[in-house]
Amino acid sequence: MEHVILVDEHDAELGTMEKLEAHQRGLLHRAFSIILFNSKGELLLQKRALKKYHSGGLWTNTCCSHPLPSENLMLATKRKLGQEMGIHLQPQFAFKFIYKAKLDNELMEHECDHVFIGHFDGAPLLNPDEAMDWRYESLSSLRSSIKKKPAIFSCWFKMILEHPEFAIKLDLLQLN
Question: I want to staple 23 with a disulfide (CB 3.0 to 4.6 A). Which of 37, 72, 107, 152 is the partner?
Fold first, then answer.
């Protein structure tokens, strides 16, 4: 059983809990989201595997997960990016935010999400337990897709794209 790190609103650790129970109870826990851009400025998206315990079949950011108890966030992002997408690089921390959202299967996402950004040109090697498809898409096309069909994208991914800190990072990276 995988455990998540429970945190307070300042991201201070409070303990651990089994991942599914934390999502059933809607308790605040630490998570991370990775967004990779190619040299054209397009985002690498993944479509979550249907067998995921929530949000299966939805398009989302390149990789997302939770650090293991006592695992450094930088190491966790590198580990999961390799496990999910077969990509071996170290994304850089961009910002963090707290959100709460109802999911399918009567679950609640309540996360202190640490967003990491990086660059990758190439094709990922998907872990079929994690992702069923992938694509690169420009920000303008992606925003148009989300307006037309918001239900096919994960809730946290849409929040990241609209977050003011994300826009600031894109400006700094000249990706806007």
Answer: 107
